[in-house]
Design a protein that fits this description.
This is DUF1127 domain-containing protein. There is one protein chain. The protein is an all-alpha fold. The chain contains three helices and no strands.
């Protein structure tokens, strides 16, 4: 039982990390011009991505 929960925990962490890295790649692919057009800040977008994937306490 404990072994199964440990495996589930690590699977969840790996899935969250994969999702965050996908979002990070997408954000980093935006050019400075794209960000200006969106009136967005790259670091703010990364912070929001982290909160979306890992939850509000990850900030």
């Amino acid at each position: 039982m404990i072994f199964a929960s440990i495996i589930a925990y690590f699977k969840d962490r790996m899935a969250k990390q994969a999702e965050f890295l996908r979002l990070l790649d997408e954000i980093n692919s935006l050019s400075d011009r794209d960000l200006r057009d969106l009136r967005a800040d790259r670091m703010e977008m990364i912070r929001h991505a982290r909160q979306q994937v890992y939850g509000a306490k990850a900030a």
